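Objective 1b. Sequence-to-structure analysis of Substrate-binding domain-containing protein.
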Amino acid sequence: MNKRTILSAAVLAAFTATLPLGAMAAPDLKVALIAGKTGVLESYAKETETGFMMGLEYLTGGKMEINGRKLKVIIKDDQSKPDLGRTLLAEAYGDDKVDIAVGTTSSGSAIAMLPVAAEYKKILIIEPAVADAITGDKWNRYIFRTARNSMQDALSAAATLKGGSVAFLAQDYAFGKDAIKAGKEALAATGSKAKVVHEEYAPQTATDFTASAQRIFAALKDKPQPRVLGIVWAGPSPMNKIADMQPGRYGITLAPGGNILPVMKTWRNYAGTEGTIYYYYDFPKNKMNDWLVAEHKKRFKAPPDMFTAGGFAAASAVVTALKKAGSGDTEKLITAMEGMDFETPKGKMTFRKQDHQALQSMYHFRIKKAQKDEWDLLELVREIPAAELPVPVRNKR
């Protein structure tokens, strides 16, 4: 190296040192999105990804920048397998050096991922997994959840039941058992006089519900009215098959939990049936939802679905937190996110400080009689505000 080269290098170094910090390219902000894009929950995962990317687009004005730093999204498929979910999250934190991770679709996989966030001391935003344990006994301080939990589902359903007799049908795994446990607790918490007379659990892949229905009908048919069968199911719903067995002859009405649009489209013949749901595109009235509905219809020829809205909400939490913290530093993010309000297609959500669960409204729906098109399915009975959903704090903070 000659004297001229050494001098040039010294001048360049001195010049660089005098530049304002903003003049140097800041490193990218990195976010991992982990979802079960392969397997039984793949439709949920794809909706989550679509909503997440549309949310980032809307919230950054299409620039994919936050505080002048480029936003990079790394997407991983955990196939709804807990071991793979754990491995991919460790890879995201350790190899990809992400600032925040979001995921995942399966509650089992999400629960497996929680200790990884604590090990790497990095934020994990849970979307859309709903198991209560995630913000309950399995929680740690790095976990935030934009998804509703099973208890929020249950409390909204309980708010529609004033008395009578209830049976439940759910899948025989963590999601289903958690939901029914929450359902029973919610009835007690809301002071409902409805009595749970039967719990029925069927395999996650069940297609024949004859035996299950017979047990449910036998348990309900002589009990005080109204007689309600609550159906909690992830994936293709058994509601049509149960309805074909004519529960009405025993005075039994069906109360389905909300599902994705392709599933609810098969319920068109059950006008007047009521239930509760996390999101339906026509219910919220705000600018963010207006944009999502219009843009989704333009791009995909269909309205956005439950998990699309959930992905969008997670994107809003990410963007709001990074802007508020002014950094991808974990401790600054936790300080910013505890008690943080953020706007979503459903309206405002708030991360409760005690357990980082997003408090949010839910919706009581009725299946429409007059339907204008294939997606015009539900009418709003009532928005149930977060203030009417007393979700208990169950972590050990």
